[in-house]
Write a structure and sequence with these properties.
5 strands; Rossmann fold; binds adenosine-5'-diphosphate; five-stranded parallel beta sheet; alpha/beta; binds magnesium ion; about 60% helix; about 260 residues
Length: about 260
Amino acid sequence: MTMSMMEIETTLKQLRLSGVRATLETRLLESQASNLSFMETFSAILQDELDRRQSRLLERRYQFSGLDERASLAEFDWGYNPKIPKRTCFELHTLKFIAEGDNAILIGPPGTGKSHVAKAIAYAAVRASLRVLYAEADDILGRLAFAAPAEKRKLMKPLIDADLLLFDDLFLARQLPPESADTLQSILHQRYKLRRSSLITSNRIIDDWHKFLGDAALTTAILDRLLHRSVLVEFRGKSYRLKEAANRLAKANQSE
Ligand SMILES: Nc1ncnc2c1ncn2[C@@H]1O[C@H](COP(=O)(O)OP(=O)(O)O)[C@@H](O)[C@H]1O
Ligand SMILES: [Mg+2]
């Protein structure tokens, strides 16, 4: 018995074949217009379903990552701060360091693009089907400090489980809660044991970290784990935010 179009729609819904459902009419028309064989049309329809599932999965992984933008290296202006080690950034963007379980630390003054580059690397990892977690470092450390034990375990789990943890803007705040050094050490120690990569950005040079962590021994333990297998990328130059602000001013003046 041949199904009517309505019945096919309902069946596709039941079978959760939304990719087929979205393109079926077009594929039918195409098949008639171009005289395609059954196999040609059938494979195109299967491909539509695969495509739809893949893009949904990517979307879910992106939502789960907590990234707030799909940054890329393509839109980065390498001419603006030529001292930024471009090759190292592209090397990290290949994600080989994640396969090796290495870490990467991007250090340098505000506005030089550390978060941008780190997010581009993280988004590449999302696209490569890795579990990525983005966290504003001070924010999550603050929340962990005030969380009850059960809540703390719940917050910690994804921080340990992620294939790539992006800890953005560590030590942006001058003062972290006293237990943050312990928490950071615990996160990094567990990730180190599991050989999972952490990507950290900070405006603070490593020599100063002990000041923000308030504990010399813990700082040594943290840096020990972090630097053992890691790429240190030094960002140098002027803030791009100043350029953006200058552009906005210039535009505002023009339109006056
Ligand atoms: N060289 C660059 N080319 C293009 N955009 C840049 C560049 N450097 C920084 N930006 C942009 O400037 C803003 C600030 O950069 P950000 O990555 O947040 O700096 P940081 O994390 O080092 O403080 C962002 O919107 C970023 O996309
Ligand atoms: Mg930043």
